[in-house]
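Propose amino acids for all 210 sites.
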């Protein structure tokens, strides 16, 4: 797939690494062009592209910015009608220990309202950058799951295909409004990793009885 990654931080860089390794055609952009260029240079096969129009030609867009920058980044990228966008953002407070949205809406829903052309899929927001960079296989503990919520079945399937291509299991989390549950789940994971000192080699999972 042709994938555009918006964001060159820890998550964006980890996505670029995994996607290039899986054989995807990867473009990366960021608010700071130098950061995007550095990420592309570090991963042979990736290329840095300007923020304006970055979504053109992409089969799927990975939104790996902070929530505060997400809408402006997608608007600059010029998302095309029904283009699949994986929203990994969490609306975190400055100390990372709380959420600024919840209960009656979510970051994903607000992004979808503001960028109506996008077929938004909530996903990967419960995965630490260190886990994404290190791979989904946790040995005897199994694979790390990615929870996917969207109102667009085709976009959700495309996101599931991308997740599987880089080794992750997927869990269908229903409609986009269920991002209201996934974002607090990410908040709990962040608290456990940082607030409770469990570290970033953790991930929430879902068990099924055999």
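Proposal:
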């Amino acid at each position: 797939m042709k994938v555009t990654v918006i964001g060159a931080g820890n998550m964006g860089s980890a996505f670029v690494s995994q996607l290039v390794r899986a054989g995807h055609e990867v473009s990366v952009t960021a608010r700071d062009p130098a950061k995007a260029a550095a990420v592309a240079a570090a991963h042979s096969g990736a290329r840095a592209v300007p923020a304006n129009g970055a979504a053109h030609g992409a089969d799927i867009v990975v939104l790996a910015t902070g929530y505060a920058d997400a809408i402006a980044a997608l608007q600059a990228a010029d998302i095309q009608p029904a283009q699949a966008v994986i929203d990994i953002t969490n609306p975190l407070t400055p100390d990372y220990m709380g959420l600024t949205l919840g209960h009656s809406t979510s970051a994903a829903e607000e992004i979808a309202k503001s960028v109506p052309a996008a077929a938004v899929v909530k996903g990967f927001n419960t995965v630490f950058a260190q886990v994404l960079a290190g791979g989904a296989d946790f040995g005897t503990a199994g694979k790390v799951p990615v929870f996917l919520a969207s109102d667009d079945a085709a976009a959700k399937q495309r996101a599931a295909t991308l997740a599987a291509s880089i080794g992750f299991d997927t869990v269908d989390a229903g409609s986009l409004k269920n991002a209201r549950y996934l974002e607090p789940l990410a908040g709990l994971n962040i608290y456990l990793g940082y607030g409770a000192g469990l570290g970033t080699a953790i991930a929430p999972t879902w068990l099924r009885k055999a």
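The mean pLDDT is 96. The two ends are 34 Å apart (CA to CA).
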